[in-house]
């Protein structure tokens, strides 16, 4: 069972002629371990996944094997595990890693709190690694916490963007066609060869262009940009009082909406819920105060929620400034305390910056200030650059 | 004559099985227009390039055809033209664009000062577009400024990273094998098909992994990151006096070298030469003054050089600060003038920011300040974010 992109979106890279079929690399393949269960529907305890992750990543041009290359400081394989963990009906995930990377992998599972993962030792080839994973699932040992699955999804550790619907298609097709993973015997994962030289019932399952494999350094760049874009879509604006929300909140909300997809303004009551819904960007607006009480409260909530374990969370502490009543320098000096807060927050993967927005009485000028503020907020959220934490920006 | 990646680096994308050969898409093909010249060496006036650029970019998932999608605010096709223009022995570059994009394309050529470019109208297919380009080169009209070439390189408008050595290989192979562009007749650019169904002398020329095609949105992200990385390698640190250069310059140079590849410290005499060598990043250090005289001089030189026509140039105006003699707020207020300078500079594609570095007497503390400054400088250069111009950052 192999996965390819949909008909309309062929691959763009020039393929090497002599290894043309390599371009048709398997994205995921499913093998039905037990024929008895093959006819059954996608049942609760029937599916496991095996991730061969023993590669050395020599094509990447970097010393680290590609599955361990960091994206926003987190290893690539952790994103792939996250994508599979989200799928509740995948009961077990077996990762095959080389002996030398076993401790690294254990560290990743612990740090990013991955669940339902078991480790096996990788073989000398990708196929041997898959075989070791399947063997671990098939073994009928007492005290073994792995349950024998009906269908096993084989998924590359370096395809982080796999979606549930595609995985479901693979599993359903495996159940309908009773495909076996003959790859192991033929030493190739290519559907073409399988169809030509064997009697295996292979079927091409339509994938999506998102299902690409991180191979070159440019793919890491692309993956980082995609991940940044995904977590930058939602922003929550916390206003310190109800009245301020009316006054400035709607104006800011409207402008932020031109730059970001989902903007939610709150006065704080439903913050817990918003954090639970995985919003990774917060703007804490302190309309007339220059202290950090509200920001500190927000930082505590984010920290307690474990939200920043998987992604760096951006928090921007906004302070309004009336030039006429307080000199800019004085205000800046006060708000500069943010540097100390930011250093502490960084340890918990929270990227904190300050933003001073000029607050004139005249509506037109206020809108202009807010517009500049919006540009800065948007840049901070989209770039997510830890080199600029603790800075006090001025709009 | 087709180009594929080298043997060791196959494509990573899953290939659609029914259109498997599409994965072997031509990166560039060369046709010898005149057989008489085919045996000759790579002569000065013998080579032209045709760029089919009539595509609609529907796979990209964005409304703009991909060749016109902006990377650092400049259309992708301009990067491809720049890559070909750099090759002095390519005498003419013919771009085939649709009638509706003709004015856009003329605007791009003018704005980015491209040379040796002629435009022809694109056909309904890629092959018709190539044909129109070849026809323009073959026509023997009086007053026609195009010279009849021996070899024509066909190059996709959406492969911006082509290097001279690869182009030379294609031309040499075309001359040796006398390959004709039979693609036009067969309606496919695939070497496999050409070899199988025709008697054309086709040869696979090894390309490089850099020769990839921008197809999906993720490829645009990757291209932007690659371009940013390339122009972020060199930084020039301009110190205001010779003595300061001794004192702080070496320290800063040493730290910047841990983040960026080429760091050049100057007191200004050879600035013109450094600009000519295409350095896109400048740090202007004003050790004890808070005015912008030096920065303004640098901005003027960058502007006059036309350096910022192709890429946004980053200029960071660094000011040192002795907390004990001048209050932070007062210094900040003074340096905040940078916002006005930055607005003006942005119009000329120069991204100006300010950086205040704490300057204590104690060596250890000074090094700590400079280290923080280095992190910020590096972040500004690598991100090249126009949303953060005119800001005064503090290290």
TrEMBL record, chains A, B:
Family statement drawn from the similarity comment of this UniProt entry: Belongs to the IspD/TarI cytidylyltransferase family. IspD subfamily.
Chain positions covered by the region annotation Disordered: 1-24
Protein name: D-ribitol-5-phosphate cytidylyltransferase
Chain ranges of the D-ribitol-5-phosphate cytidylyltransferase C-terminal domain: 233-373
Organism phylogeny: Eukaryota, Metazoa, Chordata, Craniata, Vertebrata
GO cellular component, one term: cytosol
Pathway the protein acts in: Protein modification; protein glycosylation
Organism, as annotated: Bos taurus (Bovine)
Role played: Cytidylyltransferase required for protein O-linked mannosylation. Catalyzes the formation of CDP-ribitol nucleotide sugar from D-ribitol 5-phosphate. CDP-ribitol is a substrate of FKTN during the biosynthesis of the phosphorylated O-mannosyl trisaccharide (N-acetylgalactosamine-beta-3-N-acetylglucosamine-beta-4-(phosphate-6-)mannose), a carbohydrate structure present in alpha-dystroglycan (DAG1), which is required for binding laminin G-like domain-containing extracellular proteins with high affinity.
């Amino acid at each position: 069972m192999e996965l390819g992109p949909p008909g309309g979106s062929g691959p763009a890279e020039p393929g090497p002629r002599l290894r043309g079929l390599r371009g048709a690399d398997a994205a995921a393949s499913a093998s039905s371990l037990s024929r008895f269960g093959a006819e059954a529907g996608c049942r609760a305890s029937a599916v496991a996944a095996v991730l061969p992750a023993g590669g050395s990543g020599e094509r990447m041009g970097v010393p680290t094997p590609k599955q361990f290359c960091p994206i926003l400081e987190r290893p690539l394989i952790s994103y792939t595990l996250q994508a599979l963990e989200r799928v509740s009906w995948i009961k077990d995930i077996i990762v095959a890693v080389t002996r030398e990377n076993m401790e690294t992998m254990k560290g990743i599972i612990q740090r990013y709190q991955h669940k339902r993962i078991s480790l096996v030792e990788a073989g000398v080839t990708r196929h041997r690694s898959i075989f070791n994973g399947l063997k671990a699932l098939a073994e009928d040992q007492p005290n073994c916490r792995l349950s024998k699955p009906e269908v096993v999804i084989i998924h590359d550790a370096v395809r982080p963007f796999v979606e549930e619907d595609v995985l479901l298609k693979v599993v359903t097709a495996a159940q309908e066609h009773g495909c076996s993973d003959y790859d192991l015997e033929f030493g190739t994962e290519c559907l073409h060869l399988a169809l030509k030289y064997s009697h295996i019932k292979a079927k091409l399952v339509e994938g999506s262009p998102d299902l690409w494999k991180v191979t070159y350094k440019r793919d890491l760049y692309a993956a980082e940009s995609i991940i940044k874009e995904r977590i930058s879509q939602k922003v929550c604006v916390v206003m310190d009082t109800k009245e301020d929300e009316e006054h400035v909140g709607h104006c800011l909300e409207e402008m932020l909406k031109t730059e970001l997809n989902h903007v939610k303004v709150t006065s704080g009551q439903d913050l817990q819920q918003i954090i639970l819904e995985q919003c990774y960007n917060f703007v804490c607006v302190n309309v007339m105060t220059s202290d950090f009480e509200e920001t500190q409260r927000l930082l505590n909530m984010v920290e307690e929620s474990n939200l920043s374990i998987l992604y760096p969370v951006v928090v921007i502490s906004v302070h309004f400034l009336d030039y006429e009543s307080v000199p800019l320098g004085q205000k800046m000096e006060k708000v500069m305390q943010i540097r100390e807060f930011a250093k502490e927050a960084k340890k918990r993967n929270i990227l904190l910056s300050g933003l001073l927005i000029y607050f004139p009485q005249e509506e037109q000028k206020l809108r202009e200030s807010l517009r500049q503020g919006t540009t800065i907020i948007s840049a901070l959220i989209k770039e997510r650059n830890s080199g600029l934490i603790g800075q006090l920006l001025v709009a």
